[in-house]
């Protein structure tokens, strides 16, 4: 088993979904960490919905520029071949199916691939930002989340109980315990983490799972 | 009437209850100087159309603190705790719009369209009460254009014909908002003569701009200072 | 009476409709000639729907550039403060009401301001180009045309008989004989050319004309 | 699969009956080199989406002369007498679309919209058989997105990430068409390394481009040579 936190492990596993030439949008939180695990030599272009393609690593302290931020409002850097544009073109890219992969956090996912991730129960509503567009438009949507809530209750459910971000939009769920694909026939368990079992995953999942040819989760490094 | 170079009269003349678009994403590319003038003028019951609502101590947050804002139309207001408090107390109204729909509705207003069908928000609360339609096997929701009386935008460079150029990620909603308001007021870091921006690199052609002026003392706050050590 | 052809006189009269700061689109034919009569010192920006603001005069022979043409496919020049953009933004300007004045040729105009100018009877249909957008979107639409057809038949009619370019879109008609405003109460004759009379204009007009405070047509030079 | 730099295989692999967008306005900014490759490949029954149909002896006109085109979707075809003849003989089909609607339908396809309401063409033959709707007191007609299998575009400069920059009036439909096709093939006058175009001046971000290549021997014909004498 890889060292590092469970969240890093999720990011490492998701990095294995990257393919050469992909344009990828990373949400806030675990998804942002995926950038650290892009395989060497693979041509991945990161999209930021506030109007940029080609995000580079965080800048050095002296190079921070208030004119250059990502959608999480963090200072970032550019790479050779970066481009900047307005929000209208940025979301034209998203809705138009030009983003190969979006990686987002999740609060709940249903067995038909519905996603809830924008309204925290009991808290003031802060807004959906670009999440609804990203899930509606991206070619593949991978949800990165812990398998259960802090109280142990399942986050993968027959139906979401929280307000939805999108209907039938999720392609794959990657958690600290498992990789689950959303198929037309329902949720398909394809990988379990080294430190768990199919039975444990099943127990911690609120929706019914089809059990495929289950392998052990592997991680990009 | 051609381009004007002094924003004071136009901003002072904005009536109570006006709807004003403000460019920027977080604190990046926000019209700091025009907001300061609006603070001085003190109009009330404004509707502000902006992706975010600033932070407690800067940007649109200053207008909210000053009691000038009745309603926000935004995509994410998570960075402003004063607004959150007013919202809970029912003293301010907030309309939340998905960010791509927000951008596209503003563009539709600027482009003279009557509305459009988007896949975003289908099956969510965003589509409640709106027409949905299946088109070529996919479901879309109808969205209307989003107009405003004024747009406050900020650019890196402007010329005296009103042409604007935005550096790095400062374009965000500035260019599209400049299209969508009855009057557009552009503050720039650098005001140059006509021809000072490469004609192919103009992001906002001057025909969308009514006032262009050189801003003073841009603060350009950074919301989240993220950096790496030099040797990493 | 000014010298020059009747068409030049139409262009000269239309030039008097220009106002400082206007963004103006000139169609092919007589409208193009208006550019020669922009009053000195007036700030007029010419829009070309193929993606340009700030058209200058025709270039010198050696300066002709295949990359720089107007919507009539003629080589042109740029002016300081010109900008270039794509067709989608160009027509966003047009439909969005950002063009103060469009000047177009006409085949027929109705008494409610309908315009027909894209299908020549009996000829192969060549297309409407940008005309339908220009008349639908511009703040003011001035039609520049000869008052009658070559056979003397009227072109200003109760209703157009040719296929329409737009319904209720024309603001003003300027012909070799008259200036006619389209008002909610119908067509209003406001000016007649020096070499004609109200009666002659009325006779050569197929639609009913309200006769206002008719002045003699004056021309920019 | 990342950006490719050789157009030959992709163009040779275009099937008969494909729908291909081609940028350009008149002869300005047209994909001369990709058209030449398509002439060599000889596919039949193509639908060409382009503002114009070239002239008798150049541009899309060459494909028409070669009997490869079954249908044109255009805004104005007045410069091509061969096409006119085929049209009269019923050997080619032409769909005429208002130019702004044409641009907007292409953008809608690229932007993932299901359609939009435009004021253009209301009350004309263009609106025949289409839904019209009154929105805020004005009448609009519904228009659908216009997709294509391929887009051939031409840019002045391209970099190896597929970013494109267009000089003067050569952008026209090139940038918007690059968004709207399944595969976009861009020929450029000058191919540079990534970073060779100022990031703020990129007109077509590389994510819209599948193949970028340096064209050879651009003819760049002028359709109407209009000039003044130097002393005028």
Question: Judging from the principal axes of the Cα atoms, what is the shape of chain B?
Answer: globular
Quote the average pLDDT of chain A.
95
**Span between termini of chain B:** 55 Å
Largest sheet of chain B, in brief, is:
8 strands, mixed
Structural class of chain B: alpha/beta
Binned, the helix content of chain B reads 10-25%
Sequence of strands across the biggest β-sheet of chain A: 4-3-2-1-5-8-10-11-12-13
Structural class of chain A: alpha/beta
Largest interface: A-B, 54 and 60 residues
**Biggest sheet of chain A: strands, sense, closure?**
10 strands, mixed
What is the overall silhouette of chain A?
Answer: globular
Computed CA radius of gyration of chain B, to the nearest angstrom: 18 Å
User: Strand fraction band of chain B?
Assistant: 25-35%
The DSSP helix count of chain A reads 5
Could you characterize the architecture of this molecule?
The complex is a heterotetramer, with 2 copies of chain A (221 residues) and 2 copies of chain B (232 residues). Chain A has 221 residues and is an alpha/beta fold. Helices cover 16% and strands 27% of the residues of chain A. Chain A has a 10-stranded mixed sheet. Chain A has a 3-stranded mixed sheet with strand order 7-6-9, with no helix packed on it. In chain A, strand 2 (45-48) and strand 3 form a beta hairpin. With 232 residues, chain B is α/β, with parallel strands linked by helices. The longest helix of chain B is centred in the middle third of the chain and has 12 residues, at 99-110. Chain B is 21% helix and 27% strand. In chain B, strands 1, 2, 3, 4, 8, 9, 10 and 11 form an 8-stranded mixed sheet that branches. In chain B, strands 5-7-6 form a 3-stranded antiparallel sheet. Chain B has helices at residues 8-12, 32-41, 60-65, 81-88, 99-110, 174-180; strands at 19-22, 46-49, 69-74, 93-96, 115-118, 132-135, 138-143, 148-159, 164-165, 181-192, 211-214. In chain B, a hairpin with a 2-residue loop joins strand 6 (132-135) and strand 7 (138-143). Strand 5 (115-118) of chain B pairs antiparallel with strand 5 of chain D.
